[in-house]
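Input/output pair, single chain:
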Amino acid sequence: MANRLHFKTFCILLALTSPTAGADLPVAIEKALASAGIPRSSVSVVVQEAGASRPALAVNEHEPRNPASVMKLVTTYAALELLGPAYRWKTEAYADGEHLVLRGRGDPKLNLESFWMLLRNLRGRGVRDIRGDVVLDRSYFGAQPQAPLDDDTFRPYNVGPDALLVNFKALRFTFVPLEAGVRIYPEPALPGLEVANSLKLTAGNCVDGRAFRDLIGASFQSRPPRAAFTGSYPAACGEKDLNVALHHPEDYVAAMIRQLWGELGGTWTGNVREGAVSPAARLLYAHDSEPLAEVIRDINKFSNNVMARQLYLTLAAEMGGAPARADNARHYIRQWLTAKKIAAPEIVIENGSGLSRQERLSAASTAALLQAAWASPVMPEFVSSLPVVAADGTMRKRMRSDGIAGRAHIKTGLLHDARSIAGYVLDRGGRRQVVVMYINHPRAPQAEAAFDALLSWVYQDPGPTRARPPAASPRHP
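Output:
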C-alpha cells in the first residue's frame, strides 16, 4: 500500500514538472486551434529569446513530429558549417575522341541559364561540331532509389536526385487568355514536345493547385513527350503558370542540347547515352555553380525539395566520398549535431528535404538548432535564407497588415497532415525570439490562423521566461 502511495505521489510530481505542465498557450492560439478542430496534443510549440537558457513558452516540445519542410533547416545549416558558405558545385565537360562527356557533381541549380552558359563556354573554346555522342556521367550520386511521394508523378517536387540534373527536368507551361481563346507556350520549348490545346475560355472564379489542373483537364505522357489540356480556363485566372516534369532525364538533356546548341550555331547529330569519363578524356571546361550561401536562399525561401535533396547527397559525397549514399549524409549530420551539443535523440532524416512521411524532429531540438545557428559564424547567411514575413518566399502573402510584417524570418512546412513554422521574430521590444510550432493532425491544413496568432503574440513581446522547472529530454531508443 505504501509503495502504491509513493508511486502515485511520484506520478503527480512527474505531471507537475512535465514539458506541458503549467505552459498555457495564449488564448488567441487556443481559440484558433479549437476553431480548426485540432487538439492541443497534436501541437508542439517553443518560444525562446535568442541566447536565453530557458523558453518563455514550451508545449509538447519533446514530442517527435513530422516537421515537413522545416527539416530543410537542418540540411542547410549543416551544409553551411560543413561545406562553407562559398562552396560551389562543378559541372565538367570533356572531349573523349569524337564524344562530349558531361560529368555532374550534383549542382542543385543547373538551370536553363546556367546550362546555356556551360554550352556557350564550349562554343567560346572553339567547339562547334559534336560528331559523336553526348555521354552523361552521373556517377557522383550513383543510383538513388526514388518513389514519388504521391500519385502526382509529373509534379516537379517528385523529381528524384540526379548528379546531372538540368533545369530540374522541368517545363513551365504559361497560359495566356486572349479574345480568341487560351494560348499556351512551354519554356523551354524543347524539340519533340507535343502540346495539345483544346481549352475553352469561360467565366467563373479561378482556382489553384490540384483543382486548377483538374479544371483544365491536364494530362501528360513521357515517351513521346506530350501535354494535353482539354478542359475550361476561367478568364479570371489571367496569366497562370503550371510547372511539370514529364521527360525522362536523358531525354530532357538531349532535347535541351539540341535546342540550345543549335541556337549557338553548333551542330550535333549523335545520341545521348549514360557513361563515365575515361582516363583518355580531356577536360574542356568546368562550370561553377552559384555559391552555397546563394543556393540555400532558393531552398529555404521557396522550399525547393529537389534542391534540398541534391544538397543532402552532396554532403554525403563530400564527407563520405562518391558515389553519394544517403546513409553517409545521415551519419555526418548526426555527428555534426553531436559536436554542436544538440542532442536531438528523436531525429529521423530520410532525404533532408522534409518531403517524407518518415522524417521526425521535435520542437525542442529545432529550437536548439536555431539557437546554435544564431551564435554561429554562418548566422547571416543562414538567417537571410529564410522567408521574410509579408515580403518574400513562402511567407510573401502572409500577415501583410500585421505589425510583424518585415520583422520575422520564418521557414514554413506543409504536407497533407502536417504544418510547421520555425525561425526568428524581432519583437516590438527589440529582442530576437526563436519560434517553433509543429502541428501533426488530419486538420493541420486548417491551422494557418493558429500559426499567425502565435507569430503575432511573439511580436507583441512574450515577456520573461515562465518560472517552471526545465523538463529533461525523454529517453529514446
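The chain has a mean pLDDT of 91. The chain is about 30% helix and 20% strand.
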